[in-house]
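User: Hi! Is it possible to get a structure for several chains at once, not just one? Here's what I have:
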Amino acid sequence: MRTFGLPEFLFILQAAQWTIALSLIAFAGGAIGGLVIALARTSGNRTAQLLSGGFIQIFQGTPLLLQLFLVFFGAPVLGFDINPWLAAGVALVLNSSAFLGEIWRGCIQAVPAGQTEAAHALNLSYSARLRDVVLPQAFKIALAPTVGYMVQIIKGTSLAAIIGFAEITRAGQIINNATFQPLIVFSVVAAIYFVLCWPLSLLAARMERRHAAALSR
Amino acid sequence: MNYTFQFGDVFAAWPLLLRGTWNTIELSLLAMLFGLLLAIACAWGKTAGPRPLRFVINAYIELIRNTPFLVQLFFFFFALPVLGLRWSAYTAALTAMVINLGAYATEIIRAGIESIPKGQIEAGLALNLKRHEIFRFVILKPALKAIYPALTSQFILLMLSSAVVSAISADDLTSVAANLQSQTFRSFEIYIVVAGIYLLLALAFSALFRLIYRTSLNYPDRR
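Assistant: Yes, the chains can be modeled jointly so their relative placement is included. Here is the combined structure:
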């Protein structure tokens, strides 16, 4: 039987690249989807509001694990070839679109209405109002919660282990099955996640404090 | 797309699904109750406790909030028995949920406690209330009211993330779904139905929390 040593540790550590890659995909895709959702929610168009509201309700009201299963088992039914990579990517992008969309909707609405009204009065077009007036201000508000949400994305990628995607948690399971040393294996797994997530958490908290200090002046 | 949806096998298994749904509700309610108590204790320790205690509570919060729930679950279920702790998947799952929720809820409740104006506590002291009475009536209740929306959405997130405990077969709704899936191969149909049940549960819990607010926290205050 194998014992836990340097090769086992490196095996788990190497799997971190897949966790990071999956997190980046989820964040990049989620940012695009989230922006669309947030703009639809704040657009004033009833159909767009209903659709985006329904999307958020569905993805925030069901477990991420079930969304992962539905993509993984549902795609073949709809005639798509799918592997754990793609399934995890699609499910995480959809899920983070809903959460980032809801976070950014709040940030857009936190920009005082007078700003939009003033932009209206200056006869700016919809795109100019967003690009030059509302979004730059919303961006500042959104920075801290967005960094905070990145921690949630990294943690969420661990669920991809359940459908067999070899990221950190799955690598830990594989090593645990070979060594039967769960205490050390899962401590190492947890430690790697902690090293990935904690700096982001600290950064988010720091940004939040700075933003609060900027507002109180 | 030439796939015929067959929900027959899924609906035929309704007693199993009902049982799984009940287990998920029970797990979630127990975890909410114990998690809330743990969080209140930790929030009290963090705002009023001695330095070493504050350090331990902070370490606990950071550790839990920066690692995935699935890994915590594996740690409780696979790693702790090595140290001699024998427990079932259900108990391990419940413990992991309580510990997880406790960390998130501590931060939420602490924010609530810190939002209580100092004058209110001094007023409590002036009325000769004892320390625990001040905490219970002057600090905790208005604090819970102030952070009620954040706390209850954390509760619902916990209920949803409880689907993860199926990874150790803790008999919850998702475990039932996974078993049915391996017996009938109707995976897509099963997971659609089960996702629908979770959605209904999320709506039901938020309705319950609104009801609790209206019946016990809806008193006028100055805010």
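Chain B is about 80% helix and 0% strand. The two ends of chain B are 57 Å apart (CA to CA).

User: Great, thank you!
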